[in-house]
Amino acid sequence: MRFFVRVAELGNLTHAAETLHITQPSLTRRIHQLEEDLGVRLFVRVNRGMRLTEAGRLLVEGAQGIFSEIERVRDMVAAHEAAPRGTVIVGITPTLCPVVLPELVARMEAYPKIELKIEQRGSPMLPERLLAGSIDLAVMADMTRSRLLERANVAQEEMVLVTSGSQQRDNIIEWGELVRVPLVLTQTIQIIMKRLTISRNQELKVSMVMNSLEALRVLVQEGRCATILPYSFARREYKMGLFGIRRIKDENMKRQLIVARSKGRQTTLAVEQVSNLCKQIFFDLDRNGYFTIK
Q1: 0.85 cut: is pTM over it?
Q2: Tens-level pLDDT at each residue, the chain (294 residues)
Q3: Where are the beta strands (DSSP E) in the chain?
Q4: Which of 29, 112, 133, 222 has the highest CB neighbour number within 10 Å of its CB?
Q5: Which is the CATH superfamily of the domain at 82-154+256-287?
Q6: DSSP string across 73-90
Q7: What letter does residue 167 receive in the DSSP assignment?
Q8: Domain 2-59, CATH among 1.20.120.10, 1.10.10.10, 1.50.10.100, 3.10.180.10
Q9: CATH class of segment(s) 158-254
Q10: CA 289 to CA 35: how far, in whole Å?
């Protein structure tokens, strides 16, 4: 199964065989044998590589969950020692990564026996990753009602209108004015705003949806569009004069930030330690004004 997953990750039999230290014909036989055992095709050949079929994609997701569980059990056994150790996989949203990750990496230096892995995905996708056992913790906006997740509310964050630094005006915008502003939003931000504005009679004027925060950042800085972003993500550019920020005059324009994990799954000392670090980081950032305009 690990051979299959490696081919799926690299998309190339030759490269996979090299990293697995076996010959390509031997690896090919193993893949064919797995396909015969399952009675399905797992790959189709494409130009210079291999592409997963739908059955192959489902098998990869299941296998990753199994490997994660094996790693978790191994960590639990190792956790009988005093110092927390093992691998901890944390899923973090793209808007929170640049805010939380630098501080988390710095604090992890005190725990050299914990191997930290980061998976960056949007808030709508992280609950599924938790429940599948692919990640241990999720740092995200609360966008799910699943009772299978254990949540810790860590901060409420303002959603703000963001323009270029040269377009700064009054720092408060009324809803009636906001709905007339053409906006470019990421898909996740669009979902968040729909939830926050569900009681409003007027919808936001979204002219484009894009899923590249970096491209969106450039467009805003150049004055080509306006957007709505979490304050912490826009805060650095705002302090540098690259962004203009306007507070939306509505107390409901705040997203709930959480640290979450799957209920009912046995955990390790390492996961507990990283979870506590994340909560403390949010407490410190919130106290220093990272999530609300002061």
Answers
A1: no
A2: 888 888 888 888 888 888 888 998 888 898 888 888 889 888 888 887 888 898 888 888 888 788 777 777 777 666 555 678 899 999 999 999 999 999 999 999 999 999 999 999 999 999 999 998 999 999 999 988 889 999 999 999 999 999 998 766 658 999 999 999 999 999 999 999 998 888 888 889 999 999 899 999 999 999 999 999 999 999 999 999 999 999 999 888 999 999 999 997 888 999 999 999 999 999 999 999 999 987
A3: 43-46, 49-52, 86-92, 114-120, 137-141, 149-164, 172-173, 183-185, 206-209, 227-230, 243-248, 254-262
A4: 133
A5: Periplasmic binding protein-like II (3.40.190.10)
A6: HHHHHHTTSSS--EEEEE
A7: G
A8: 1.10.10.10
A9: alpha beta
A10: 55
Q: Buried (b) or exposed (e) across 37-49, using 16+ Cβ within 10 A? A: eeeeebbeeeeee
Q: Which amino acid is at 162?
A: V
Q: How many CB atoms lie within 10 A of CB 177?
A: 14
Closest among 242, 240, 235 to 159, alpha carbons compared: 235
Domain boundaries, the chain: 2-59, 82-154+256-287, 158-254
